[in-house]
Amino acid sequence: MDRMSTEDRPSAPRSLAEALRGRDDVSLGALLRSRPDLITPVPTDLTQLATRAGTRASVVRALERLDRFALQTAEALAVAADPATYDELLGLMAGDDADPAVAAALPHALGVLREQALVWGGDDRLRLVRTARELLAPSPQHPSPTGLGPTVQEATAGMSPGRIQEIVTAAGLPSTHDSVSAVTSLTELFSDRRRMAALLAGAPADSLDVLERLVWGPPYGQVTADPAPRLRWLLDRGLLLPTAPGTVVLPREVALHLRRGLAHRTPEPVPPTVEAAAVHRPQVVDSTAAGQAYTSLATVEELLKDWDEGGPAVLRAGGLSVRDLKRTAVALDVPEPVAAFWVELAYAAGLIAPDGEADERYAATPAYDEWRELPAAERWSRLVTAWLPATRTAGLVGGRDAKDRTLSALGPGLDRSAAPEVRHRVLALLAGLPEGTAPAAESVLARLRWERPLRGAQPEDDLRGRLAQWALSEAELLGVTGRGALSAHGRALLGAPAAPAKSPEAEPSGPGDKLPVHHRPTHVTTLSATEQAVASAAAARLLTPLLPEPLDHVLLQADLTAVAPGPLRRPLADMLGALADVESKGGATVYRFTPGSVRRALDAGQSASDLHAFLAAHSRTPVPQPLTYLIDDVARRHGHLRVGAASAYVRCDDDAVLGEILADKRAASLGLRRLAPTVLAAQSDPAGLLEGLRAMGFAPAAESAEGDVLITRAHAHRTPPRTAPEPVPDGPPVPDDTLLAAAVRAIRAGDLASTTPRKPGTAPAVNGELPRTGSAETLATMQAAVLTGEALWIGYVNAEGAASQRVIAPIRVEGGFVTAYDHTADEVRTYPLHRITGVAELADDAG
C-alpha cells in the first residue's frame, strides 16, 4: 500500500470514524473481510463501526492474526510518540543503520495495519488505536515485547522537583525553573545521539555493564538503599530512574540510544524459508502416498468391521474408555494415538456414532454401508474431505482439560477451532515447494510462528505448533503426502496449482517491485463446498490409477492358510473374512482357517458344499486336502447340539453326548440338569450356553422357538441415521462478496442518514439514536414534504425489529403508507407509517 502524503489528503482525519469515512467501498470491504467480527451484526453507521473496531475483544482478535513483522510494527508504534511520523516509525524499525530489508517491507506492514483499522492517519500523524496501544505499550505489570521501559516523562512522574533538578545538573544541563522544562531538556539530551555518546564516554566501565544487561529488557532492576558506586553514577544522571522502593528502570530514550534506535532486537521483515529435508522423485511420492491411502481405507474398514455388531460402550461423560481405546489399538495393530486418530476420523466422516439405545454403544451408521460400496478413490476422498475442516483434534486424546479431566477419544473437549486453518496452511506451504520436496518440520513450524506469533504465551502453550505437527503426521497417515512431500492427488485436493519449478522463497523482491513474495497474504483461503467437491473429485481421479486393482482370487496352501496377493473384491473379501481369520497384513494378506472360523461361516448360513464350491471357484491353486477335511469335520458336528431358550436348553439326538457334557467339570458353571434323555436345561442364557459349550470343544447351533436353526448374519447392528459432527467455527465466518456488498451499502446508508445536516432547532443524532416524533407530527411533516419536495431524515423499524436511519424524499402519503425515494438505498420504496419512529427536516444545503 502506498504511503499517504499530506498533499494527497484534503484534511487530516480527527478520528478513526473520519478515517473510515474517507475510504472507498473496496477498502471498507477489505476491512470487513479481514475482521468479520465487525459485521456481526452489521453496524448502523461508520461511527458505530469505528467504536466496534476499537473494542478490546476485536482488537485482540485482530492483533492475534497479524504476522510477526506487522505485529512488530504495531509494537513499535505503541512505544513511539502519539501521533508519530512515518520517519520516526522507520527509525524504530530499521535503526540508525537503516536496514534496507526493513525499509522495503515497512510500507506493506503499515498498509496491513491501516487496512485492519488498527492504525489511522497520514504519514505525518500515524495513530495506533487506543486499545491496541494499551495492550502493547510497556508497563510494569505487562512488559512490552520490545523490552523497552517508560519514557523519562513517565518515569519521573511524581518525583520531587528538587531531585529532578539534581539529575539535570549532574547530567551537565543548566538548571530550570520548573520540572516540566527540566524533564524536557533531559529527554532531549537522551534523544540526541551525539550528546548522549559524549555523556556515556565518561561513564565507568562497570556502569556501562549495568546498562548492557538492561538494554534489551526487561528494563527493571533491583537496588539497595545504599547503591554501589556504579549504580550511583547512573542514578545521579537519570540514566536509571527509581520507580518504586528498591526498583529502578532504564528510560526508553536511553535504551533506544544504546540499541542504535531499534525497537526490537531482531526485526523480522522476511518470513523464515521452508527448508527441504529431502527430495524424492514425484512418482515415488505419489506411489507411496497411494499405498498409504489404500492402507487408510483398509484400517477404517477393519475398525468398522470390529464395531459392526455393536462397538464399545459410551462413557457416561461421553467418549471411549481408556481400556476400549487400548483394545481398538491392539485390533488395528497401531499405537493408541494413531488408533484415536482413526476413530475420530470415522466419527468426523459420519461412519460411526452412538446408537442411542439405553445401554448406549458405538456402532456403524447407515452411511457406512453406502461408503463401502463406493470405489476406493472416492472412499478416500470422503475421508480426507471430512478431515480437512474437522475441528475435533485426536492429538489431544489422553491429555487433560482445564478441570484436569482426561480427554477421551470421541468425548467432549476435543474441538480446537484453529485446527482447520492450521491444517490448510501446512498443506499450502507444502504445495508451494517443488514436486517431491519434503520439508523440514521445524522450518514449517518456524514459518507458522512467524505468520501467527505467540503473544505473551510460553513455547509449551504453542497450540498452533502442535496442530501443525499433528497435521503433518495425519497427512502422511491418510496418504495426502508420501515420504513427507505433498502428492499430486493431495495438491489437487487443495485446489492448488502445479508445483513451482523452484522454491518461491527464492524470488527477488525489493523497493519498487510488485508485492514481494514474502509479503503475500498469509491467511488461508478455504474452498467453498462446491469448489471442494470439484477438488475432491479431481483428487480421486488422480489417485484411481495408482491404487491396486482388486483381485478375485486367493492362493490356498496346505498349512490351512490362504494368501491374498493384493486387495480383494468386496464379495470375496466379505466371505473370506467370515470363513478365515486374518493372520498377517501387508502387501499380501494371510488368512488362516480354523475350526472356529469355519463354524462362524456355518453359523452365517453357509453349508459345507457352499464352502467347497466357493474355495474351488476363487483359488488359483487346488483346494488342499487338510482344508477339505477341516470343513467336512466341522460341518459334520455343526448343529449336532441345539441350544434354545427355556431360560436355555440343550437338546441332542445322541443322549451319550449329553451325558459327556454333564460329566465334564467345565460344565459346572452352566447349571445343567437332564430333563429328558435328549434334553438338558441350563441356568445361563442361550448366548452364555453357546459360548460355554464351544469353549468345551463342541459345535452347538442356536435354534428358534419353532426349532429352526438361527442363522447369525454379520453387520447386523446399525445406528439410526446420523449426521457427522459440525466443526466449531473459529469466530464469525468470513463474509462472501454478496454479504460484504450489502453490509457496505447498509453502513454507508446509515452513515449518510446520521451525518446529513438538520434544520436549526432539530436535535442531532446521538450515537445512532433514531429521531422521535408523534404520529400526528410525522404525518404532517410527510405531507408537507410531498408538497415542497424536501428530503427528510427518518427512523425506521422493520418487521424483524431492526432499527435504521434513512434519508427519503416523500412522493405520496396514502392509506397509512408513504412512498418515497430512499436516498440511502437509491431506489423508490414504500414504508408503513406506523413503523416510522420519527422524522426530522434536513437543512436546505444538505445535498
Low-confidence stretches: 4-9, 503-524
Strand proportion, as a percent range, falls in 5-15%
CA distance, first residue to last residue: 33 Å
Oligomeric state of shown chains:
single chain
Overall mean confidence score, pLDDT: 84
Count of alpha/pi helices: 33
The outline comes out as elongated
Quantity of strands, as a count: 25
Give the % helix.
40-55%
Outline the fold blueprint.
Elements: H1 16-21, H2 25-34, H3 46-53, H4 56-64, H5 68-79, H6 86-94, H7 100-115, E1 119-120, E2 127-128, H8 130-136, H9 152-155, H10 161-170, H11 179-191, H12 193-201, H13 205-214, E3 220-222, H14 229-236, E4 241-244, E5 247-249, H15 252-258, E6 276-279, H16 282-306, H17 322-332, H18 336-348, E7 352-354, E8 362-364, H19 366-372, H20 376-387, H21 419-431, E9 437-439, H22 441-451, H23 463-478, E10 481-482, E11 485-486, H24 488-493, H25 529-543, E12 555-557, E13 561-564, H26 570-579, E14 581-584, E15 589-592, H27 595-603, H28 608-618, H29 625-637, E16 642-644, E17 648-651, H30 655-663, E18 673-676, E19 679-682, H31 686-695, E20 701-702, H32 737-755, H33 775-788, E21 792-797, E22 803-814, E23 817-822, E24 827-832, E25 836-841
Parallel strand pairs: 16-20
Antiparallel strand pairs: 1-2, 3-5, 4-5, 6-9, 7-8, 10-11, 12-13, 13-15, 14-15, 16-17, 17-19, 18-19, 21-22, 21-25, 22-23, 23-24
Biased composition (Low complexity): 496-511
Domain Helicase XPB/Ssl2 N-terminal: 554-676
InterPro entries: WYL_dom, XPB/Ssl2_N
